[in-house]
Amino acid sequence: MDTFAHGLWAGALAKGLNKRGEKHRRLNVWATALWGVFPDIFAFGLPFIFVVWSVVFGGSSFADFGGHPPVAEPMSGDTLAVFQLSNAFYNVSHSLVVFAVVFFSVWVHFKEFRLELLGWFVHILIDIPTHTYAFFPTPVFWPIFDWKFDGFSWGQPWFMILNYTLLLLVYGALIAKRGKGEFDKKA
User: Looking at the domain assignment, is residue 185 inside a domain?
Assistant: First the structure.
């Protein structure tokens, strides 16, 4: 799924969990949304900066990078090092195993669950069926297993329309419930 939609889904999750009357700690919606985009920023931030820097200051053009980095499985060995690093970062940031280690380490350190991290968890769950072997399949159990699900492409027009339609409906429902007093105005 595209990074922006991940942030919107994570934010909707936080808003939905922040129902008035619940006895749990209220989630910071912005922090949850940021954790929702974290896996993609972690994986693709460095190559994005590299490509932009190369175009702006290095005399390269976007065409020099072939449109997008090679991402088919397995990645070719002759790929630029920055793209190989991005692939390694993708494995780290899109693994439920790594997420679980971080989530429980944060819990042990702070002595409470930081539920905003659920944005990261939801990101991984959404990516499992919406990525194909041809474009960054999600390494769910990395580094224990190298299994990846060959799903469908989130970039297909039908899915983009469906996804953003659902987001509009979810946010519309959240706004409608907020107007009826079911949600705290600060959520």
Answer: no
128 near 149, Cβ under 8 Å? Answer: yes
**Cα–Cα distances in Å, from 3 out to 39, 42, 84?**
9, 11, 20
Q: Does 186 reside within a domain?
A: no
User: Angle at which helices 96-110 and 118-127 pack, to 10 degrees?
Assistant: 170
pLDDT band at 173 (very low <50, low <70, confident <90, very high): very high
Instruction: Please tell me the distance from the alpha carbon of residue 55 to that of residue 171, in angstroms, as a whole number.
Output: 38
- In this structure, is residue 122 part of a structural domain? yes
25: CB partners within 8 A, 6+ apart: 112, 115
Which pLDDT belongs to residue 31?
97
- Residue 120 forms part of a structural domain: yes
